[in-house]
Write a structure and sequence with these properties.
Chain lengths: 504, 75
Amino acid sequence: MKNILEWIERSAAECPDKPVFADENGEISYQDFLNCVQTVGSAVAGYPLRKCPVLVLLPRGIRALTAMFGIVYSGNYYIILDSEMPVPRMKMIAERLCADTVITDGKLIGRAEELSLKRVILLDEALKQEKNQTLLHQIRNEMTDADPVYTLFTSGSTGTPKGVVITHRNILSYIDWFVKEFEIGRDTVFGNQTPLYFSMSVTDVYGTLCSGATLHLIPRSFFTFPVKLIQFLNDRQINAIYWVPSALCLLANWKIFDYAKPLYLRKIMFAGEVMPVPQLNYWMVNIPDASYANLFGPTETTDICTFYRVGKQFEEGQTLPIGHACDNCNVMVIKEDGTAAAAGEEGELYARGPFISPGYINDPEKTAEAFVQNPLQSAYPERVYRTGDLVKVGDDGELCYLTRKDFQIKRMGYRIELGEIEAAASAVKGVYSCAAVYDRIGEKILLFYSGEKLEDAEIIHMLSVHIPQYMLPEQIIHIDSMPVNRNGKTDRTALLNIYQGGKQ
Amino acid sequence: MEQLIGILNSLKPGVDFANEKNLVEDKILDSLTMVILAGRISDEFGVKVTPLDITPENFRSCADIMAMIERLKNK
């Protein structure tokens, strides 16, 4: 196999009438989906675009998925935009990509036009076009498994997002491991929680296509209403979920299983942040027949590089291991001096093998920093990825996650670099200096600023112009002057002390 | 009502809760805020808010939330 589209074609041949995707509004069979994506592919291929980035500005749902795979058929690669993302951030992404085309619908066309790109394609118009099999065939002949399928943006420390390029080979290798390890098959019914612009969705979307399974996109609002969520899982007979720990914790914190229970769940997987033991135990006690797995990895390894099957309950205060490398992926723990860490020694996690992205789009500098020659061998060129995560191998031989090397934090599975919040806050009129600090104890993003004293609401409003909601600070603190350390840098420890002192 | 608006303001600064009628559809009350909100209501109004009470109908506006609190008080 060399192309992810072969999965759609194979499943459409083997189980044409089976639903592949379902959202709040309806469902679509493999055969109909194949027809739609080939039609959209033909329409997009009608433009002089090949191996180009094409933006998708559509709400999470079957239509967004149709646009995504239509773009792949057209010989281009897709980028999903969060439709709630502020326009300046979308523009930043479009500029970084040098994109000139966006696919959208009648509702979002206004926002799409604000991007001032050369081409705005309406999905409904594209779906009305004739399929051109000759053209699609010709495009496919020129494709290789090293071609990109999509680019996914993560938040960058300088305030500029980084676009991770992912190829057919990356996805084919990664999904091959995933479906074998977790025995994903035609009887699997996924309940998708993560947005399509987040790397975790790659796993359940492509896992579905590859195995002829069905994926239900759970509307985000259902997570606010826990009983409705459980009813949805039961109505759709969902038996596999791959969610961020926050979503699992949410249900545990509600003590939801006293009121409603999922009847079909057998596979429970999670990734994106640390899963707390008490909440995991709550799940394991209440749904004892399910298997549980902790997956770990960055967008740069397609989604995951290590995993741990949770075969027993852990004690509170213990941390779940991140386990060991996936099949066809390999990880190394490297010390500051570039040598391999021994068991129990702390080091940075490096990953190598076919899950590794070729690099960041239009960013040779960042690519060269993160994708480096394997420090453990110099005989031949071999690019490996530095995750920036500090880990060690524990007594049980399993890898344990310690912390991020830099200030980057994770929340609800989203990667947030505080620099990006600061970049937005600096833009607020009246703010002289600012610093975003993460209070690890209270798990809060704090924004300190000096300058004119402003209303919190005003600052939040101004920040929302630049950064998505999940990045907004929980607390805004005005200070007379910014404390600095001896290097003249903002003293973040002093800021945390101000905050913690003020609380007492 | 003022007490409730106080709680809401502390959870989500910058929203005009007294006049907002679509807390759910406008995505002001997200999943995390809802957990904290239910806890604070339980603590500060002396009622027991369970997942069964967490429905879109009960949380559209401040008035809806107050009505739910009154119902729970009389339980």
